[in-house]
Write a structure and sequence with these properties.
Layout: H1 5-12, E1 22-26, E2 37-40, H2 41-46
Parallel strand pairs: 1-2
GO molecular function: metal ion binding
InterPro entries: Ureohydrolase (IPR006035), Ureohydrolase_dom_sf (IPR023696)
Pfam family, one: Arginase
Length: 50
């Protein structure tokens, strides 16, 4: 398990609803985000208030 695999497990175990969840600031790419909306680190940085 690593710092991002927890999202895989919580979706798989029905602990969060991927239809109503957003993961913010991810710095890696994955082919399957299990239905979770992703706001990657680059997008967040480009649209930050600073």
């Amino acid at each position: 398990m690593n710092h991002s695999s927890m999202f895989y497990y919580v979706v798989r175990e029905d602990l969060i609803d991927p239809e109503t969840s957003i993961q913010v600031g991810i710095r890696t790419f994955n082919d399957d985000f299990m239905g979770v909306k992703i706001l990657d680190a680059e997008l967040v940085h480009e649209h930050s208030i600073n």
